[in-house]
Amino acid sequence: MKKFVVCFFAVMFACAGWGCALNVEKNAQNLCSYTANLEFDLETHTLAGEMQVDFINKTNSPLRELRFNLYPNAFREGSQQSVISLAKSKECYYNGPSFGGIEITKVKGERALEYEICGVDENVLKVNLENPVQPTQSTSVVMNFTITLPNISHRFGYGENTINFGNFLPTLCVHENGEWQEIAYHSNGDPFFSDVANYNVTVSYPETLTIATTGTCTNTEMAGETATKTFYAPAVRDFAMVMSEKLQVVSKEVDGIKVNYYYHDDLNFTTSLDTSVKAVATFNNLFGKYPYPQLNVVQANFCIGGMEFPNLVLIGDEIKNFDSYQMVIVHEIAHQWWYGVVGNNQTNYAWMDEALAEYSTALFYEKNGGYNTTYDQIIESANTNMQVFCTVQTSVLGKVDTKMNKSLAQFENENAYIYTTYVQGLLMFDAFSNLLSEKVVLKCLKNYFTTYAFQLVTPADMIASFEKTTSCNLEPFFNSWIQGNVVFAN
Ligand SMILES: [Zn+2]
What we know:
Number of strands: 26
Shape: globular
Number of helices: 10
CATH architecture of the largest domain: Sandwich
Radius of gyration: 22 Å
CATH superfamily of the largest domain: tricorn interacting facor f3 domain
Strand content: 25-35%
CATH class of the largest domain: Mainly Beta
Distance between the termini: 9 Å
Strand order of the largest sheet: 5-8-3-2-14-17-16
Largest sheet: 7 strands, mixed
Helix content: 25-40%
CATH topology of the largest domain: Immunoglobulin-like
Bound molecules: zinc ion
């Protein structure tokens, strides 16, 4: 594959070490902000909320409306959006069908505003502004809502052990290419796309529950049996939380970052905390420092492995194999760099953060001994699995489509999605490393992380960033993988 690459100049590096440590507070200036007051009712599993959104128009045109993704509505009765694949449906809805959603009851600016629930499937809230908001100008809207959690072992829902609030708040659609990017839920992948923003969230809940969230707690009040906590999370893509009566927590600090491991069923909790800490330390060192003060790793009922949110990851408690459990911890923590800090459209380019999370996981095992897993084993098994996938797809469908740039709904099935984004993506970065050396790839990733921190990237941005670091023409190499012409590492 060397034929794809032409290097003109010696490799130049813009930035090395932690000299370019990211400053969250500085990056939090001039961002949209969400200030929410939430009240959780454990009996009904509902969350009543009022939220002020301070919006800054960063486009070049006046905007007459704001649009928000309403991800909880994918869980409502009659939803056409799939939240879980058929194969995993029974396991996730372990008590049978259950429904949730979000009901918007009022939206106001200076006075009441007109709004409608629209999108392809009631997945979008459209708010008509009283006056257009001009470029660089801001406007504020306040909305009231009630969120109902379904009984499902999912990122949004309550299960046997934890109550998971993932992607539950209305979040502004990204305004890109002159339009609001509305996102429909899908059982493949993580169908989310958002700009970083500042969150101030106050939540009241029964004091018997332990809570883990995005951000850090800035205030706690107790009144009878109700706890009220406020969390501040600057420059993050979303706000998530988990509550449970069963969770215990152990913590350790690394590079000035507090890592908390919440668990309810883990005899090896010290190892799980240790793996979390090592993952943060390893990725700090390889890619650039995690810019937030805290990271919560939470063992939760979640039937599809693990899930990343800003400053918080879910690790599925159904993963009984110890080695797999540790690997999921590492993969989800890697997403803090690839998704959390450097964001992308996860519906259209799911491979961007998944391939890098997988490659980062492989690097973790290369840099940290003492596990029953090595970098070489991971690559070897990825190669074998990819070959099996291609053989099976070809025999069943008569062909195999290995294009990586597809939206989540375009993959034939969940397997096709996983192999094409995770496995093929990992092999692509391994091949990149074989081509230019791991040292050069790490420089690429360090520069990519620093350059695009708190931003959204496209595949073209990623390739251009790597080309800038290496002074190599890398487009043919990456395009051959992304278009699915090359799928195995050699
Ligand atoms: Zn992932």
